[in-house]
Amino acid sequence: MTGTQWQHPKLPSVLPSVPAVQDVTTTPEQVNAGMARITNPSETPIYICALDNCYRLFPSRERVMAHRKRDHDSEDQDDIITWNE
Question: Does this UniProt record's set of keywords contain Zinc-finger (predicted)?
Answer without folding.
Answer: yes
